[in-house]
Amino acid sequence: IMAKDDEGLTGLVEERTRKGLESGNLTPSDRLLAAKVALLQGEFFDSLMHFVKAASQDDSQKKNAEEGFIKILNSGHYEFILKPPDVISFFQAYVFEDQEDRLYLSAQFRPPSPIFVVPFILSLEGNAVKSVENLSKDILFAMPDPNLSGTETFRLWVAGKNIGDEVPIFELKAILHLDSSKTNYLDLSNFITSPEVTDNWSAVVGASESFSISFAAPNYDREENGVLVKGYQLSLSDGKGPMLSLNSFRKPLPQKIDIWKTIGEIRNPTQKPDN
After folding, report:
1. 90 and 72 inside one domain
2. Among 29-43, 75-89, 175-189, which stretch is predicted with the lowest mean pLDDT?
3. Coil, strand or helix: which one is 251?
4. pLDDT over 70 (residue 23)
């Protein structure tokens, strides 16, 4: 279609897509083709919907969906997905692990529609993240906005599986691998949740000697075998979290820590800190 600029082939794909939608027999491959044709025609909303649906039906289409989404971003026509999700809970935790800076991210959110890609604006530089490890069950992909690299804004695009006509609550679970060569300070604030959301946390995990005497007082504090965990309930500080000088924390932990378990312990209001 691209080589021949063939309107006949385009029409054929559109007709097949229409019939497939009517019969409910549209395969993931059909949707992928429909997504690519819609992209060529500048129908960016339809293109994105088909990409997400194809990847929702077939895991092998996730890479194609991500590549297609990047093309939509590069077109500049993505205003229809700028509406942020309703974030119900949020937790980010910094740790220096396996010789790199990492930010563990856990959030529950309700998207604006059953088929979606939504933005998460985090308090990071645009080029702070070198890769994202998506550990979520129902999230197709989570990727930094490539067009914001070199700016002071970081946007994480999150695409969820289409699992029906309802709009359920989704859970984002990911590890952001930070680029240590471009990130010397880390702001652990979060302003994407409503002020009334109390499950809004940041945490810092590090060797005890990494924390200065003047380090910000936490709402949760635990030390075990030379590892100190400090948790900050951001709803009590209007979303403002501690600022880290990462050079102080770039040293191996005296003991391996399960960060996901630690996040659960901080979130649990019945958890008693072990001193």
Report:
1. no
2. 29-43
3. coil
4. no
Contact by Cβ (8 Å): 242, 203: no
Residue 177 sits in a domain whose CATH number is 2.60.40
Q: With respect to residue 172, please indicate whether it lies within any of the assigned structural domains.
A: yes
Q: Could you tell me the CA-to-CA distances from 83 to 98, 111, 165 in Å, in that order? A: 36, 9, 19
Q: Hey, what's the torsion of the CAs at 231, 175, 106, 104, to 10 degrees?
A: 0
The pLDDT score that the predictor gives to residue 12 is 61
Q: What is the mean pLDDT of residues 2-10?
A: 50
Nearest to 209 by CA among 226, 223, 222, 221: 226
Q: Which domain holds residue 64?
A: 7-79
At 3 the pLDDT is 43
More confident residue, 163 or 198: 198
- Same domain for 161 and 100: yes
Are 97 and 227 within 8 A, CB to CB? no
Residue 129 within a domain = yes
Query: pTM of whole model > 0.85?
Result: yes
Query: Among residues 31, 49, 79, which one ends one of the domains?
Result: 79
Tell me: do 74 and 186 sit in the same domain.
no
Neighbours of 235 (CB within 10 A): 19
Closest residue by Cα to residue 118 from 81, 151, 143, 91? 81
Q: Which amino acid is at 104?
A: Y
What 8-state DSSP symbol labels residue 255?
S
Q: Single out the residue of 19, 31, 23, 20 nearest to residue 162, CA to CA.
A: 31
**Cα dihedral angle (233, 237, 243, 249), rounded to 10 degrees?**
-20
- Pairing outcome for strands 227-233 and 220-224: antiparallel
Q: Are residues 111 and 213 in the same domain?
A: yes
